[in-house]
C-alpha cells in the first residue's frame, strides 16, 4: 500500500474528496515521515503541531459539510522561515530574529489558509536567504534527501528537502537569484519563480526587494500550478504587485509543444556546465523537438555578466533592507555596556552570520560615495542589457531552456570556504531574476552517482501559461519517477 506521504497534491486531494482518508491522516503521514527523516535532514526549523492539527480538523469538518474551498483544502504545506506567520516563530534562520513571533501573516500565508491548506511549519534556509546550499543557517545546515552527505541547494533548501523527503506535499520558497529553482534541481522536485509582482511580497522578510519573489515547490508540474494559483494575484499591501488577471495555468498543462519555438541558451550550455548535466538537458531538448517543437540556438550575450551584476545589486539592496535590524525595535540586542552606537554595532555583529556580514559590507561599499556609479550604477546598466537580451530572444522563440544548476548537488562543506565557487551555483538562474521573468525547474534524471538533474524553462513576463505548457511536456517526456532515498517509507531512523 502506498504511504500517504508519497502522494501528489492531486492524488491526495482526490482521495480527500472521495473520503478514502482524512486531512488528519495526511498530516499524520507527513509528521511520521518527518520524525524519521529530520534526524538526518534538518529541513524544518519549527513544526507547528498544534496549529497544523487544528487546520486539518477544520478541513475535515468542511469536507463533511460539503464546503470545499479548493484543491489545496486539507493538504499539508510547508513555509520557508522568511515568511511571516502570526504567532509562529519566524527567524529567517538568523540569531538576530531568534524567537520572534510576527503579529501578522504574510499575504501568501493568508491565501494558503483561505484555500484550506494545512501549514505544517517553517523550513530552514540560508540566513536571510543569502546562500546556495542552506549551510549558512544559524541553526545548522540542511542535508539532501537523495544523499545526506550532499547539500540540498539554497537558499530554500529546507523547503525543497521537505517536498523531496515527503514531510510536506508542497512548500513555498523565495527566489532572489535562483533560491527556488536551484534547490529544486538538486533535490529532484519542481520549483518555480513567478513573474516579478505576480505573487505578493507582503510579509516576506526582504533580502533584495527588486529581485525577491515567492514561489512553490512540488512533486509535479500540475501541483505547482495549483499552489501558484492559490497564492498569485494583486495585493494592495505590496506596491510592486501586478494589478491584472492571473494566468490560466490549469488549462495550459496538456497542450503539448507542437509548433512551439524552444530556444537553447548557448551561454548556459558551455564552459562550467557538468558534462552529465549538459548531456541530460540536450537529450530532453531533442525529445521536445521530436514531440513537435522547433529548437533554436539563442544567444544572451549579457548573461556572461549577469552573475557579477547580481552580486552588486543584491548586496546593495540587502545592506539597505537589513539596516532595520539594529537591536532597538525587535530582535537580538547585545548586552554590552556603552553607547547606543556600541549596542547597535555589537547587536549586528552578534546577530548576523559571516555570509550576511560579507554581503552587507559588499553592498555598503558598492553604494558608498565615489563608488556608486562605478559599481552599483554599472551593475544596473548590465541589468538593462540582460532585460534587452531576453526581450529580443522572446521575439524569436516562445520559451528559453537551459540547465537549472551547472552541477548536481555538491558535498556539504565542499564550497563553504570558496564564495566564488558557491556563487557560481546560481549562474543559470540569476539572469531571469535580473529580467523579472518567470522560470521553472523540472527534474529530468540523475547523474551516475544518483543525484538529480534539473531542466530550466524560462518565459517572458506573465508568460506562465506557455512556460507551464512546456514544463508539463518536459515532465511527461522525461518520465522522472525516482524518489529520494530518504523519501522511502522503508527508511528507518539512524
End-to-end distance:
24 Å
Number of helices: 15
CATH superfamily of the domain at 4-254 and 480-487: Amidase signature (AS) domain
Percent helix, as a range, is 25-40%
**What percent of residues are in strands?**
5-15%
| H/E topology pattern | HHEHEHEHEHEEHEHEHHHHEHHEEH
List the topology elements:
Layout: H1 9-18, H2 23-41, E1 44-47, H3 49-64, E2 76-80, H4 107-114, E3 118-123, H5 157-165, E4 170-175, H6 181-187, E5 190-193, E6 213-218, H7 221-231, E7 261-265, H8 275-290, E8 294-298, H9 303-321, H10 340-351, H11 354-367, H12 373-393, E9 399-403, H13 419-423, H14 430-435, E10 439-446, E11 452-458, H15 464-478
Parallel strand pairs: 2-3, 2-4, 7-8, 7-9
Antiparallel strand pairs: 1-3, 4-6, 5-6, 5-10, 9-11, 10-11
Question: What does this molecule look like?
Answer:
The chain is of the alpha/beta class. The chain has a domain at 4-254 and 480-487: Amidase signature (AS) enzymes. It has 15 helices and eleven strands. It has helices at residues 9-18, 23-41, 49-64, 107-114, 157-165, 181-187, 221-231, 275-290, 303-321, 340-351, 354-367, 373-393, 419-423, 430-435, 464-478; strands at residues 44-47, 76-80, 118-123, 170-175, 190-193, 213-218, 261-265, 294-298, 399-403, 439-446, 452-458. Strands 1-3-2-4-6-5-10-11-9-7-8 form an eleven-stranded mixed β-sheet, with helices on both faces. Strand 10 and strand 11 (452-458) form a beta hairpin. The radius of gyration is 21 Å and the shape is globular.
